Amino acid sequence: MTAFYLPLGEDTFRSTEHTVGPWGPDSQHLGPPSALLVRALMARRPTFARVTFEVLGPVPVAELTVSTSVERPGRSVELLSASLSHEGRVVLTARAWHIVGSDTTAVAGGDVTGMAPPSSAVPMEIPDFWSGGYLAAVEWLSVSGGIFTPGDAQVWARPRVAVVDGFEPSPLERLFSVVDSASGVSSRVDIRKWYAINTDLTVHLHRQPVGEWVGMDARTTIGPDGTGLATSTVHDVEGPVGTTAQALFVRER
């Protein structure tokens, strides 16, 4: 397989083994289904300022159906929505704000410092207990830290496969294929002993990404009562493009 999904029709897709996440062989990492919904939303509008995903249950490695709609039409600003279903049950939703582009070059600014480039990073070590599925479908480079090094991390990622078989992914699809991993690369717990599962993902973009590489300058904070927060500044090779935030359900296995 060379993609996360095989198209079965206009709105129906079969999940491949590349989507398998860390919690079990039958459930997906949230990266591929997030990218699949963004791909569907891009058929309506090409760019987004913010996309929020709500995880309504495990996304199964199975046949999935995508639907989209316009919630709030407008000349300058529109709110779009999308959902992902399995056997009639919605497992993931997305709501995206599209803002019509204009020339703001004269007032552009405020970026944080860019990350060290992918050429200066090193391959991230992958342990034997999770060496396949989604993790193997993405090329991972570490500037500092990583998925199996507890604490803050700076990581570059590049999907090795397409989102949908037969279609070249856009930079925006590539970004959404990997940014859910911000909570993983900066995790403070051993996933063999603890659950640290995000209930949502919000991505704000102040410009649209370019290229194949996605950088995450990520950090996770865990509170004393079973919840946590993972955030990141997202980069491409030209600099910062936005931020992410994820609420975490944290429990000992």
From TrEMBL:
Residues 21-98 form the Acyl-CoA thioesterase-like N-terminal HotDog domain. Pfam families: 4HBT_3 (PF13622), 4HBT_3C (PF20789). It comes from the Bacteria. InterPro entries: ACOT8-like_C, Acyl-CoA_hotdog, HotDog_dom_sf, TesB_ACOT8-like_N. Residues 119-250 form the Acyl-CoA thioesterase-like C-terminal domain. This is Thioesterase family protein.
